[in-house]
Amino acid sequence: MKIYIKTYGCQMNENDTEIMAGILAQKGHQIVDDLDQADVVILNTCVVRQKSQDKYHSALGQLLKMKKEGKIKLVGISGCGANLEAEQLIKDGADFVLGSRSILAVAEVLERAASGEKVIYLEDTICSDMSSLPRSRSSTHHAWVTIIHGCNRFCTYCIVPYTRGREKSRPMEDVLAEVKKLAESGVKEITFLGQNVDAYGKDLKDGTSLAKLINKASEIEGIERIWFLTSYPTDITDELIETVAKNPKAAKSFHIPIQSGSNRILRLMNRRYTREQFAELVEKIRKIVPQASISSDVIVGFPTETEEDHQQTVEIVKTLQFERLNLAIYSPRPGTVASKYFKDDVPREVKVRRLNELLELQKEINKKLNERYLNQVVELFVEGKTKDGLYYGRDIRNKIILFKASALQIGQRVLVKITRITAGPLYGELVTS
């Protein structure tokens, strides 16, 4: 059968899609990039925000209409939405539902659905030998590598621990075997993934850690750069910071969500640090890794957030000067503590105003920080080409750079001189390739 997979949400969902596509292709199915060519459509879903959930529900409705018209045969749901509302999705018309930790069973579930069975499969199929799985990678030079599944933090606003389950680390040997295969296939950059990537190895209780994994992976011939996402502040160790500082292949980039600058709101969120502790961590990283790029996340309009709370967030954003700031308006997620016990009492228009204030502030910060790049020569790997014919890539600090060149290869290492600054990407001229 011809199968089209639509992916929503985070990089872990992208990685899961690559695994499902690889398994299905190995079983003789054809993965297609065009919905109009598909017999089967799988929506790999995200529920971290109400907007994400609304998107896939809207897509499901459109797909069921196409199925009724005979344009497609089966519609399946995978990912976090499957875990959250499996029964409802089947009632709505989905033919099969596959949990976020059940993706290894995708071919079996599809076969059952094709025989006419309505299937809900939520069992944990994550194994200790993930490196042997077939995958359909979206990039030839970069690969996502999930090293830990789940999260134990239970922030009051977050549905992830309920949909992805508790933390479960892959054995280091298995991860390294996957990285070695990737290097042999020509991959030069890898990103280690986890809902809480810094917790990697804690559950194994054998001394395994993210820092040790980075050092081991960097020894594999062909691997040139190593990234990791996403970090929880109190799980970032001195060992990890020192590793990023000393290992030339470790990207000098930390993504550390702060979520709020108000200690009162942080307590309500069950974030296990204060604004002062977060600032101390950022200061420590910048002292040990002077060239480090630090980005963050903020949730605007959490229940009971006052103007004073918001201004405390504004203040810490001004003080810490993040290279990038992902902003989201709070939306209640059914099943979370915040949804159950806290009233969503910040008016929508207030949330939007606060969001826009932070957006404008971050634009100013971005432009100021980007000015440091002017006339500098940076090294990057070519990631692709825009519709306007510009090549692009990112440096070791995760800064996106666009430039003109002719006939470059994806994954090629180049040097680019920065000639123009914006609040977003940088623009430059090719120095050498």
TrEMBL record:
Query: Where does the record place the MTTase N-terminal domain?
Result: 1-115
Q: Where is the Radical SAM core domain?
A: 137-368
Q: Does the keyword Nucleus apply?
A: no
> What is the name of this protein?
tRNA-2-methylthio-N(6)-dimethylallyladenosine synthase
EC number(s) reported in the record: 2.8.4.3
Note on cofactor: Binds 2 [4Fe-4S] clusters. One cluster is coordinated with 3 cysteines and an exchangeable S-adenosyl-L-methionine.
Q: Which keywords fit this entry according to its UniProt record?
A: 4Fe-4S, Cytoplasm, Iron, Iron-sulfur, Metal-binding, S-adenosyl-L-methionine, Transferase, tRNA processing
Q: Which residues bind [4Fe-4S] cluster 1?
A: 10, 46, 80
The species is Pseudothermotoga thermarum DSM 5069
Q: Which Pfam family is one of those matched by this entry?
A: UPF0004
Point out the gene that encodes the protein. miaB
Report the SMART domains cross-referenced here: Elp3
Reaction equation(s) it catalyzes = N(6)-dimethylallyladenosine(37) in tRNA + (sulfur carrier)-SH + AH2 + 2 S-adenosyl-L-methionine = 2-methylsulfanyl-N(6)-dimethylallyladenosine(37) in tRNA + (sulfur carrier)-H + 5'-deoxyadenosine + L-methionine + A + S-adenosyl-L-homocysteine + 2 H(+)
Cell compartment(s), UniProt: Cytoplasm
Annotated HAMAP family: tRNA_metthiotr_MiaB (MF_01864)
Q: Which residues bind [4Fe-4S] cluster 2?
A: 151, 155, 158
Q: Main subcellular localization, coarse class?
A: cytoplasm
Functional summary from the UniProt entry: Catalyzes the methylthiolation of N6-(dimethylallyl)adenosine (i(6)A), leading to the formation of 2-methylthio-N6-(dimethylallyl)adenosine (ms(2)i(6)A) at position 37 in tRNAs that read codons beginning with uridine.
